[in-house]
Amino acid sequence: MPEGLVTFPKATISRFPLYFRVLTEYNHQNIALVSSEEMAQKVGVTPSQLRKDLSYFGSLGIRGAGYDVAYLLTKIKEILGMDRKRRLGIIGAGKLGMALAGYSGLKQHGLEVSALFDTDQAKWGAINEQLTVFPLSELAVQRERLGLEIAVLTVPKVAAQRVAELAVEAGFAALWNFAPVRLEVPPEIIVQYEDIVVGILTLSHHLARKLGT
Amino acid sequence: MPEGLVTFPKATISRFPLYFRVLTEYNHQNIALVSSEEMAQKVGVTPSQLRKDLSYFGSLGIRGAGYDVAYLLTKIKEILGMDRKRRLGIIGAGKLGMALAGYSGLKQHGLEVSALFDTDQAKWGAINEQLTVFPLSELAVQRERLGLEIAVLTVPKVAAQRVAELAVEAGFAALWNFAPVRLEVPPEIIVQYEDIVVGILTLSHHLARKLGT
DNA sequence: TTGAGATTGTGAAATTAATCACAAGGGGAG
DNA sequence: CTCCCCTTGTGATTAATTTCACAATCTCAA
Ligand SMILES: NC(=O)c1ccc[n+]([C@@H]2O[C@H](COP(=O)([O-])OP(=O)(O)OC[C@H]3O[C@@H](n4cnc5c(N)ncnc54)[C@H](O)[C@@H]3O)[C@@H](O)[C@H]2O)c1
Ligand SMILES: NC(=O)c1ccc[n+]([C@@H]2O[C@H](COP(=O)([O-])OP(=O)(O)OC[C@H]3O[C@@H](n4cnc5c(N)ncnc54)[C@H](O)[C@@H]3O)[C@@H](O)[C@H]2O)c1
Fold first, then answer.
1. Predicted confidence (pLDDT) per residue in A127-167, tens digit
2. Arithmetic mean of pLDDT, B131-158
3. Which of A42, B26, B32, B100 counts the highest number of beta carbons within 10 A?
4. Is the pLDDT of residue B2 over 50?
5. CB of residue B3 closer than 7 A to nucleic acid strand C?
6. Under an 8 A CB cutoff, do B96 and A81 touch?
């Protein structure tokens, strides 16, 4: 089955990080082999959904036995692009930007925050041994120097479109946008939106339904 | 059409916050009437999807004319439970918890962070005029006193399950969980997961595909 | 008051996603 | 080496969601 031609539900990819997490746990517990049933239970999906999800990327299991934990981990890393380190530059060294810069969950997944950028002069300079906040004018130079691929947008929403354009000009291939606005960028640029308000308002809706507003 | 009986796609609700945002903009610009085509364009959905989404909640537009901005805003507020203020208690006054506590986007949607809780004694006390960090033992008392409904979990993942149980015991009706773990709670408790790693790994996958890993 | 023009609301059709159910192997006991 | 048991991989089926296309009906101008 030629991997490049298969199409699969968009939701499939969003389940892979969850598979990755439970596999990491099994690995820690020195469990070498796991069945789709056991794993699916832990993730909260059906076994057939798990098997179907994996099947889009080849025949990754062992019939009659289950899935080899270590092997499946390396395959999932490959699928999610975790087989090599990806470097992030955070634009907007404010409350959220600084929280993300100090979030260990990123490094655990091969994602390294390597620089921050801000227009506020007062924020420029080293934060610690590894991290420095640069002025925006350094965007292209530091991207090149540090090998940054992904720009994280944690600037106020009014600045987001302009900053996105600067990031594209500076050569970033992908944007991870936390500002609550839709960005206009060239089609070859990958954009991932992270909209926290959608989550809490979904919750609020359920709450309103349950309580009768 | 009896509102309570209609079923609709889960994704419908997650589009309402986006509709709300563009309507707020129209409102600011003193635009009173807007067509599904114009609005859909701005949000990034098809006009028929927008109309279908709204139709699940009644006949909210005016045939031949469009949607009345002010009216639709009040209806969407109702649907999303924004017609009254909801109070949040943040458990875990760390990097992310503090960022959320200072996030103006919440208040703009009728969501008010009214207290924080932490086990770390060094964090206890007032942050500013409005906000205080309490010890976890105060959870039930302060929930009652301040009218907190939603517990925001921004604690390390190893603590999340235990903290969720404490929040339920303390009488919270809903949990907004930022820790990367599935929570075991009674079925009547509403849980919304916010998993940032899913987003960035989805992006990483697209990047790997595009660049050939 | 009437008719032309516009845009909604919505069944039906098309598309996409999830589940089912079982044939196709692989493992291991004897 | 063989046979039985077990679990995967996957077509077929069912379910969910989106898109289509047009009848319904509202506005506005004359
Ligand atoms: N704080 C949160 O918890 C949270 C949650 C979800 C989304 N967001 C979104 O993230 C963004 C940042 O929020 P925040 O709370 O961290 O705000 P903040 O004000 O704390 O930080 C914004 C930072 O961006 C910098 N900045 C402003 N204009 C800039 C520009 N043109 N180029 C580079 N840097 C610029 C500011 O100097 C500041 O350091 C906002 O769009 C917000 O809606 C925040
Ligand atoms: N930092 C981020 O940008 C980010 C992003 C996404 C998700 N998260 C998740 O959010 C959670 C918090 O992350 P963080 O970076 O803010 O960590 P942090 O270490 O800065 O903050 C954690 C806070 O929780 C407190 N705490 C620990 N155990 C507790 C308990 N049992 N009860 C109450 N409070 C307790 C600690 O004292 C600390 O103040 C983690 O689960 C993390 O995976 C963080």
1. 999 999 999 999 999 999 999 999 999 999 999 999 999 99
2. 98
3. B100
4. no
5. no
6. no
Question: Is-contact B31 B70, C-beta < 8 A?
Answer: no
Q: Which long-range contacts (CB under 8 A, 24 or more apart) does B160-168 make?
A: B163/B91, B163/B92, B163/B136, B166/B136, B166/B139, B167/B91, B167/B139
Mean pLDDT of A34-58: 97
A39 in contact with chain B, both atoms CB, cutoff 8 A: no
Residue with tokens 């979990």: B153
What is the CATH code of the structural domain delimited by A10-79? 1.10.10.10
The Cα of B62 is separated from the nearest Cα of chain A by a number of Å equal to 25
How are beta strands B148-153 and B174-177 bridged, if at all? parallel
Q: What is the amino acid identity at position A8?
A: F
Q: Alpha-carbon distance A123 to A92, whole Å?
A: 10
For position A213, what pLDDT does the model report? 67
Q: Which numeric CATH code is attached to B86-198?
A: 3.40.50.720
For residue A204, count other CB atoms closer than 10 A to its CB: 28
CB of A28 shorter than 6 A to ligand 1: no
Domain boundaries, chain A: 10-79, 86-198
pLDDT tens by residue, B111-132: 999 999 999 999 999 999 999 9
Question: Among all chains, which residue has been given the structure tokens 């530059």?
Answer: A89
What mean pLDDT is reported for chain A? 95
The pLDDT score that the predictor gives to residue A133 is 98
Contact call for B205 and A80, based on CB within 8 A: yes
Q: What is the CA radius of gyration of chain A?
A: 20
Give CA–CA dist A112/A117, Å, rounded.
15
The per-residue pLDDT of chain B, averaged, comes to 95
- Inter-residue contact B88 to B176 (CB < 8 Å): yes
pTM higher than 0.85:
yes
